[in-house]
C-alpha cells in the first residue's frame, strides 16, 4: 500500500511538474527566439513552478523515514510531516501503529491521531491515547 502511494506521488509529480516544464523549455527555444524579456518571464515561471512543487508535494525523505520506521512514534508526541492536502486514505504501519490519513482515525490499537492543517499544506500528526 505504501509503495503504491509513493508511485502515485511520483506520477503526479511527473505530470504536474516535469511535463509542463519540458513544454515551457521547448516553447521558449522554438517560439521566443531569444527575446530577453521572455527569458526573464521564463525564469520567473520556473521559480514559481519550483516553489509550487515544494509547497504541494511531500518531502520524499519524510515519507521514506516513516516507511522505514526511522521516525519514532510515541504516544503524546507531535510529529510534523509534509503531506499534500489532496492525498486521502493513505495508510501506513510504523512500529505497530496503523495509521490512515483521515481527519480523525481510531486504529485497532489503543491510540488515535489527529491531523491538524497548517499553512503550506503541512500537517501535524498528534498521537494521543484513545478515549473510550
Brief description of this entry?
Keywords: Membrane, Transmembrane, Transmembrane helix. The chain crosses the membrane at residues 6-32, 39-57. The protein is α+β, with helices and mostly antiparallel strands.
| Count of discrete structural domains | 2
| Total number of beta strands | 6
User: How many H/I helices?
Assistant: 3
Mean pLDDT: 52
Assembly classification: single chain
Beta content comes to: 15-25%
- Largest sheet, spatial ordering of strands: 1-6-5-4
The gross shape turns out to be elongated
Spatial gap, N to C terminus: 29 Å
Q: What is the structural class?
A: alpha+beta
Radius of gyration: 19 Å
Give helix and strand order, one letter per element, not per position: HHHEEEEEE
Q: Which stretches are low in confidence, meaning pLDDT under 50 for 5 or more residues running?
A: 56-61, 64-70, 74-78, 80-132
Main sheet, how many strands, which sense, barrel?
A: 4 strands, antiparallel
The helix fraction, in percent, is 40-55%
Keywords: Membrane, Transmembrane, Transmembrane helix
Transmembrane segments: 6-32, 39-57
